Amino acid sequence: MYMKRGQILEVFIEDTKYPSIGIAKVENKTIEIKNAIVGAKVLVRITKNRKEKAEGKILEVLQYPEESIEPICPHSEECGGCSHQRIPYETQLRQKEREVLKLFEDAGIKGFKYEGIEKSPLEFEYRNKMEFTFGNLTKGGEMTLGMHQSGKFYNIIPIEQCKIADNDYNIILRAVSDYCRRKELPFYNKMNHEGYLRYLVIRKSFRRKELLVNIITTTQMEHDFTELADELLKLELDNTLVGFLHTKNDSLSDTVKNEGYSVLYGRDYIVEEILGLQFKISAFSFFQTNSLGAEKLYSVVQDYLGDAEGKVVYDLYCGTGTITQVVSQKADKIYGIELIEEAIEAAKENVKLNNIDNIEFIVGDVGEKLKEIEEKPDLIIIDPPRPGVGKKALQQIIDYGVPQMVYVSCNPKTLVENLKDMIEAGYKVERMKLVDMFPHTAHVECVVLMTNVKNK
Length: 456
Ligand SMILES: C[S@@+](CC[C@H](N)C(=O)[O-])C[C@H]1O[C@@H](n2cnc3c(N)ncnc32)[C@H](O)[C@@H]1O
Prior knowledge:
Blueprint: E1 8-12, E2 15-17, E3 21-26, E4 29-34, E5 41-49, E6 53-63, H1 89-106, E7 113-118, E8 129-136, E9 143-148, E10 156-158, H2 167-182, E11 197-205, E12 210-217, H3 226-233, E13 240-248, E14 261-266, E15 269-274, E16 277-282, H4 291-305, E17 312-316, H5 322-328, E18 333-338, H6 341-353, E19 359-363, H7 366-369, E20 379-382, H8 391-399, E21 404-409, H9 412-424, E22 427-435, E23 445-452
Parallel strand pairs: 4-6, 7-22, 12-13, 17-18, 17-20, 18-19, 20-21
Antiparallel strand pairs: 1-5, 2-3, 3-4, 5-6, 8-9, 8-11, 9-10, 11-12, 13-14, 15-16, 21-23, 22-23
């Protein structure tokens, strides 16, 4: 059959590849389809047609696989947040491991001990942070506050009940949305950059049960949100509202950016406890979004790192120094390197909070800053952002020749690319474990233990 762009076909999803891209075959030609479920029959439009493979977009799901379940979230079909709610959680886990192991196999990485996937402690209500956006669902339509519609840049679907966040988020969301409508405040239009209301960010600490609410607007008008703060304080919540902030953000990019904020109630941070340590989380600092899952992840890192007693450890790409502090309890000395200055400021505050005195934090690019540390490492932990470790930094890391390294990755694709270079330089993948921090999405965290076989 001769396939054409724009053609509409009925296909069966045979398998998926990372990150959850459905694979269908039509006369030996592979069609890759986003957000498809294995075992489903779908109607697709061919969007790209190359010699080696084609790409398609789902127009309609004709038949779900037998084991599929009714999503408990009323928005799951259109919300860009979760795409896997029809798949039973156990099957989601099997799919994630299959996809990651296939990446390893395709990269020729063999001979390691695969130690399975750790479940998220909570299947639902696991998020400690949600970012909701003000906008509208259709051009010229009324204001909505919620999540981006799947695959759409401008459309915001109103969220009544988000199931990956607890019910307090939904109660606050409704109260803020009602208030803004009542006051007839205009939302910010991403097309012409006009308007006022941009985002609502809610953070929660699981162990302390604290909530921090942050409303983000442009400076195109002025509004005093104190009355909203009073209304939020009257809500019946399971957690305690400890702070309400109003942040200014005129940036043209569609991201929550802090261009100055005022505290309208309480304080500008929450405190979370992870593995017995305290972490002050400000409105903008990076923190793993699944607090209970983060405990599992960090425990795997500790286990893989092994005996750090009396050793010098480098924690590269350390963020707010969470892993750094967890590991510092055993190590003699630990150095954390991180690009973002605010993250290091937060890390330093947390170190004080926990009375830790064997950590040195360094702000800057790993590739630049490594050479400034005189004391050489005995062990290295790497937790880079999605693009992985750059070539220059990776070479410097390899050159230390440490006996063991632990690599934590949120992107298995770039992980295997880095691992290939490390293997070529004399390292071996010893153990690998996955930790599911993001149920109902395509994402997964990988932890890998590498040993130096060249210097043995
Ligand atoms: C996955 S996060 C690390 C998270 C941290 N280990 C934790 O568990 O909270 C990756 C971090 O790398 C930082 N980063 C990105 N590029 C960097 C670079 N070139 N040098 C140093 N840090 C970088 C990011 O700012 C981010 O905080």
